[in-house]
Fold these 4 entries.
Entry 1:
Amino acid sequence: MSNNRKIKVLVIDDSAFMRKTLSFMLESAGDIEVVATAKNGLEGFELIKTHQPDVVTLDFEMPGLNGLETLDKIMKDFPVPVLMVSSFTTEGADVTIKALSLGAVDFLPKEPSAVASGVMKIKNELIDKIRNIYKQTSIATRLKRISDITIGEKKTPKQKTQVRDWAPAFEIKAILIGISTGGPLSLQKVIPHLHAQLPVPIVIVQHMPPMFTLSLAERLNKLSELTVKEAADNDLLESSKVYFAPGGKHLFVYQNSGHLSIKVSENPDNTLYRPCVDVTLNSMIDVFGKTVLPIIMTGMGKDGMEAVKRLKQIGGYAIAQDEDSSVVYGMPRAIVDNNLADLILPLDKIAFQINKIFKYEYSYAGNVV
């Protein structure tokens, strides 16, 4: 992919105002060219085949094929990185999570009032997201491959033995998953395949705004044997449960009268991300010491790296997702490049490995035994 040409973007939106506004914002960047715009999904799909854009922005509410139907068709027939344009509402969050689970790379949240004067507020974020998506080489191929992953089905004996015969030298008492861009699609390939009686709590720090983590937790709860929930202040931290740090807030784990509890807070307010993997993992190290196991998965940036360094210094372990199965190889790359990863695993092996640490195995049919 040459860096000497402009980033080609296709805008699909049924609103003429939004098509014009998004095009204006993108082209003001100088290194982005809007090669075409479409007023509905079918027209957009045909223009994708014609123009082969680097990135597509896609609205949800459109006549004919809606955003989800259009996305599904794109991912199956002509995979290309898609950025969804979403609203900050509960309904908008639910549909966004569905889109991300279908293979959308990322989403751009906008206030309901943004259709009028506030729309320009999203300009810098829109441009940054387009540039970051473009930087990911082979992202369309990876998205298609990840979307097609089916965990635990039609596994041959050879595939089964590919799970490493690896376990920490001491008992693991908690797991933290740090994840960002590509998270909803990837977590759907992990959490539903964990054993129902996993003897530890799992905390997930997924970079997302408010409301979106609740929708993601509810979706995964329906798919999983484990209880999956968005964490609330004063929740008890219990085994066989998965807790999402709420979007826009930090999650802390602490000792409370002999129990392990969760604190949710907007502070510190000077972190790049909120929720932040480093903040949550550091609080878990304070409680669990080296017995917390971090798994750093797909995402931009390097959130989690500093806390993992601290954990490694006291004898802990860490797992990183591999490059080929990461939608964006940023956060796991920081772990791998700094020699902090004890295991580097493809997405379809992460649930297997977690189960194996706690002596649970998959049968060839894909069932946990």
Note: The mean pLDDT is 87.
Entry 2:
Amino acid sequence: MRFVLNKVGLLALTLWAAITLNFLLPRLMPGSPADAALAKLAQNGPVSPATKAAVEAQLGVPTGSMWEQYLSYLGSVARFDFGVSYTFFPQSVAGLVTAALPWTIILVGLVTIIAFIFGTLLGVLAAWKRGTWLDTLPTVGGTFASAFPYFWTALLLVFFLGYVGGWFPTSGAFSRSATPEFSLAFVGDALYHAILPATTILITSLGGWILGMRSTMINTLGEDYVTFAEANGLRPRTVALRYAARNAILPNLTSFGLALGAVVGGSLLVERVFAYPGVGYLLYTAVTNQDYPLMQALFLIITISVLLANFIVDILYGILDPRTRR
């Protein structure tokens, strides 16, 4: 219990630091969103004081002391109120993020979990059957597949399976004629559109999990407790999974925590290639259009997701290896 409370305290402290930095960094930068908007207006002629005041009021330029702004900002974060998007005015930032977040979590999150499970199991198998074709096939195949960048694999799939073959849609999360609703027809249409981006992420990430697990598994197989378990006549599957794999998975679990935290950020290039309406595509749009409120909200959400994922991994570490509790 003390171990969990320490981790919760560390999470709360880190979360406060992340929120505070997200408040300070935009204010330490030269200029403001209002200055950027006024600079665009100034290209057509001088900007009057009335126009400047209207732009500042429209964009919600903060007023008052830094401490007052900070307290107001904490209240806004607690209410999930990040203002209005400049790009999609007058839509709220919270509404845009809420609409994009499920698409990224379902696509990138599920594929990341599937790739981790299959990659870890294949890595265990490759290390246990080292020197056989069960080692060579996943190792060489995973190395070859992971050598290609995300966007290159996405472009290949779009060209050959989308344009040339015509088997799968090349963009979007659902058909233009479909109405977003919780129905079997819409879910099937969304899954059909997610096949190519999901395959891209799976192909390019599977090799890393295989090679990482295989490497640590081989080192663990040389430990004395594994030799002792084999000498006691335990079944090979029991030795491989309960003795070797349980300890070898810890470094892979750390990488999985980082990958899971990055899920909310989305696979920006993959979502860009497929015009998939996830957080990655929304972040790209915000950066290219200098949409500061939207960028600030997305950066904060991505940071929080990474912290929560690391917290979960720390708890799992304590369960898998009780020594870490000390």
Note: The mean pLDDT is 75.
Entry 3:
Amino acid sequence: MIAEEKRHPCKQEIRRKIYGMILPICLENILQMLAGFLSTAMIGRTGAVAVAAVGLSMRITYIVWALFKGVATGGTVFAAQAFGAQDHKKLRNVIQQTLLSSILLVIVIQQGIYWKADFFIQWFHAEGELLAQSILYLKIVSWGLPFLAIMLVVAGVLQGMGNTKTPMKIALIMNVVNVMVSYLLIFGKLGFPKLGVAGAAVGTALAQLVGALVGLYTLFHRDGVMAGLLGPSFFKFQGKRIKDIYQMGMPTAFESIFWQICTILLTRLILKFGVTSLAAHQLGLQAEAISYMPAVGFSVAATAFVGQAIGARDPDLGKKYMEEIIKGSIVLTSISVSILFFFPSQVMGILTNQADVIALGVKYLMLMAIVQIPQNVAGVLNGALRGAGFTKAPMIVAGTGLWLVRLPFAYILSLYFDFHVLGVWLAMTLDLAFRFVLSCILYRRKNIYQYMYPQEERA
């Protein structure tokens, strides 16, 4: 049957599906932010060295997260396409091979990090007590990395199938466990030993274990998509399928790693202008997250629904979903833009009572408000490109913007034109505007709707 003869859902049904997917993602992000805030607050009560030790260690674990987020994206794309084509055999095979390969790879990485933790921490020139606590935290938290990889894969394939409620529930369970165990072990409550930074690491790893077990149960219980497949045959690797998944996902991994490296370099640059500048920057980022959380949901929705339309070989359905996703993104972003632009001092005042930080942070929020809509629409377009299998395009957009615009202009404007931290923020706005234009160009050039069959089948 040709695409034109297919029955499409009405606009109301399309919107219901879109927002039914986006709302759980937003709630999941809020849960993650809240748990992170509480964990940081607890660690902060044990001293500045503990906070710094966790921060250094997380730079290493973020890179591992970025790698397996990329692998999970490859699984998301193929799962969405198989789900859209109603090819349940291929869907199960994609999940199987993504899980198997991820578990094997992450175990190798975890062992490397555990036995060479001192080598990785010394990248940051840490010494004395900071070095010792960072190594201790990284060694303990490394045992949670295999479970982190499993959770990312489970969430990725479920989102590809349009199920975002289950990852949200898993995140809720994981964050509750993390906060409770961390509280007991950091401070030594209810008879538990007082472990300080080590307690925070145990809480994180244990929460990841619980999250992974719940995720695996979701897939393999009798009503799950992988029901009945957990036997000896499950552990057979298929090189071709794994290669396809990793080729699809690695550009997303590199895209995330680009961000991590850029963040480190910009943080070091901003520190040149003093603690107030860094505080305004960090709090500004936290305030801006109010706008960015819905954008993440719209981007994931674009990946899932475009991928499903491609699997179903239905270009008109893909276009209808994208039209509503872009409209929704612009409407919701306009609300947050209004808050950031017209009430920046009130927003900053919620986060701090330091007048100098508020005054500087207001400038950040007003600059970022100008480019929020371009930034979030670009995220949707890049999500659609991923769903169509063009995962290299968002990587090119991010890499070009970060390395050719954001970083060089940040150094030039802040140091050579004496704009100081304001120069860094101006460079960020230039980068976001540039990436919006580049994303639009690539989206139009790829013309994803002419490829209404899975990426791996293209000549």
Note: The chain is about 80% helix and 0% strand.
Entry 4:
Amino acid sequence: MKQTVRTMRQDAWTTEDDAILAEVVLKHIREGSTQLAGFNEASRKLGRTAAACGFRWNACVRKQYRGQIELAKQDRKARKSAKIQAQLEGGDYDHPTATLMSWAQVLRFLRQEKNTAQHWASRWRAAQRECNEWKEKYESLEHTHREVLTQLERLRRDHQVVVQDYRALVEIFERARKAAFLDGEAVSGGFMYRIDEYGNLERVASDLPAQQAE
């Protein structure tokens, strides 16, 4: 397979490779970038890994270019100062720097921060009110739910009692139906039933007079 420029090389470093690596890294230092970014760019130019470029820089190249590194740092500092000055002279108040700031810039910046803080505080209070409203609704629904459960349990007990009473009544009537004839005829078994003044069903002897049995 034909190798491309991007193919990772394993051969030894040459003087030309060191010069390219130094040029790229020094450029990133002057522009305020990082050495890691320089290693990444150099890796693409040299066909090596960024780790290999970094190792070569720290092991050999950096020692040979100490003077150029100091000059690049001074250049970077000068560029930064010039940029700050240009921002101040150009009236770039929306992005005040952390070093040279006029009182007007400081005041504008603080006002913006105050407005931002007030905005978020207002949203926080609104969220708190909404949270309290939902909490009250939840507590009300929970109370209603407990009441409904209590009523349901009471209805279940009442229903059980009604079912038991109904079964007992059906059993009484069934025994009475089996013990007596219809239309006042003689009662088999020697007894019949009547309802007393309290509404209770009682058994009476069949030999009593009809008027007394009624």
Note: The first helix runs from residue 15 to 30.
